[in-house]
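Hi C.,

You asked whether I'd gotten around to modeling the 182-residue construct. I have! Everything is below, sequence then structure, no commentary in between.
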Amino acid sequence: MGSFANEPRPALTHRLADAHDAGEIARLYVEGWQHLLAEHQVPMLPAGTRVDDHERRWRSDLLNRSSRSGAMLALADHHAVGLCAWRPASDGDGEAELIGFHLEKAYRGHHEGRRLLDATYTAIRAMGYSTVVVWMWFSALEVRRYLERHGFRASGERRGIEIGQPLHEVRLSRPLIEDLPF
């Protein structure tokens, strides 16, 4: 996409992804991983981060609505430029876990990430979830601060993972019902 420095920027549109979008979801998901890995100088993609592998998985999940997984796409002129994806949290009851949040660089810094998150929260609430969580690298301070500005709080839980090097993750959560005490 071209530069928008001197051009008015129309807001992106958002829509819930379906099985036909599996290729775009996979592309954006892997781009997000590649960006994160490069930023943290991790030398390789983890197993299972090939676009075609993710495309098959997403198509299957989106065809099977009982999977309670989903993805919200951010679109510019009908072209997917952002993604917020979730699945049932493996470590919580009634919680959705964000597993992908990526917006192409040209669209950052104009409140589009917030709009994408808001559209995602609406979809996740409609699926019956009460809380959204995310496990994120402790060293991903910029993204962590961004999410904290938008209502996420560290739960105190931490875990270690290995992706070419040892990394530590912290769990953040956010209630989806506005009047719930945090």
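If it helps when you're writing up: The chain is about 30% helix and 30% strand.

Thanks,
B.
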